[in-house]
Amino acid sequence: MAAPARALAPSPESSARALGAKQDARRDQLAESALETLGELGYARTSLREIAAKSPFSHGVVHYYFASKSELIAYCVRYYKARCVTRYDAIVADSSTAEELRAAFAAKLAETLRDEAPMHRLWYDLRTAAYFEPDLREAVVEIDAGLEAMIWRIIERYADLARARPSFDSPTTYAVLDGLFESALTQATLGDPAAAGQRLEASAAAVLPTLISLHP
Amino acid sequence: MAAPARALAPSPESSARALGAKQDARRDQLAESALETLGELGYARTSLREIAAKSPFSHGVVHYYFASKSELIAYCVRYYKARCVTRYDAIVADSSTAEELRAAFAAKLAETLRDEAPMHRLWYDLRTAAYFEPDLREAVVEIDAGLEAMIWRIIERYADLARARPSFDSPTTYAVLDGLFESALTQATLGDPAAAGQRLEASAAAVLPTLISLHP
DNA sequence: CGACGATCTTGACACTCGTCAAGACTTTGT
DNA sequence: ACAAAGTCTTGACGAGTGTCAAGATCGTCG
Hints:
2 copies of one chain form a homodimer. Chain A is an all-alpha fold. Chain A is built from 10 helices and 2 strands, in the order ααααααααβααβ.
């Protein structure tokens, strides 16, 4: 017996800093195994033993690094967020015309639908799970706000390049594009993945112009 | 011990017809209790015992009328669908101008968001649960198609009244409006319900005109 | 090298779940 | 009114869960 799970104590300096770093590294490693499992099985059907099975460790280790399942999930969710919110920043920075941005954005949407479907499924699963599990709400609201801001940056840039202005406010614009993406993800999962990618690229490219209006 | 759960035998005529009707009535009653529970707790957290607790019966009865949990869920899902797919038909039939339809549709969206939030939460929960549970897929795909057709009828009528044509195809149009609704449902559940209703009505009214285009 | 602390494994606990069976109760048919 | 069929309750089973604690193992430092 030794260190408590999720020791919050500042720890006695010296080698403790490196020690804390090692613990964080292990936590990240477990979070990756957890995300892999969550992406495959979904939130409700993922058990700690299943997560451990996808890692090099036994199920006790999970409880050694995380005080509870809720804490593990919260850690995973924030770990996941860090990667996805900057997904389109390069497109915003690199595009020099509205048409270029429109095509690049639609293509990138289809690409991430193809390459990261399990993570997207997990995200929508977590968001609806938050309807029923208050523990998840804080993290979900935070991520959703991050995604909305990400979309808004794209639309503002798109409007700028087109010498136009966004037609709708940020939440509405995000809701429209999120609807297109979730619809495509559903088709990709329950139907034809290849067709879903093509349809998403086409529908996003088609809808994008309606999200901005020419100057008054 | 007696009748098998979910007896599929044609049954010996005479009084069997009425008997089957009684069983169907009980099944419907259990389905209503189940839907109430599912709407409150969500799919993953709803147990047969919890469903029975919300009914006048004990947990054994559920297994008496349904061979398995999957069968109960499937029955519930179709029972639920019968009610929701015709929700906007009156609006389509009664509106005589595009503006009237637009306002009535936006108002009805906000109304059902307010009055039937648990059922809507359940629907989105089931749809994402289907990502991970193949048993649910058939029913989910069927309901989703029904909802898409429902929306398409509205948009076609709206376009007719406005002497215009739908801007996008049926799946895209449905995805856009579904995105608006899910976004509002999330705000209603995780944030401010009253604000969510107002925002949904406003955003739907604002987006609707972009879903049709003037004649060529 | 020996000891100590950190890390990991193993096994157990209390609980919930879907499923099922035995029997009690109710309704129906004759 | 009696018997048969239908209906419902009760209690149990095995499997799976999160949680936790005791001990084995490893690395590191005096």
